[in-house]
Amino acid sequence: MWLELSWAGAGGWQITADWCSWLKADFTADLSAAEVVDFVARVLSRLRAPSGARFSVAVTPGRNNPLTLKAEPVGDGFALFVRLTPNGDDDVCHVQMEIDPIATVELRERFGALHAALMA
Question: Which of 58, 67, 80, 113 is deepest in the core (most CB within 10 A)?
Answer without folding.
Answer: 67
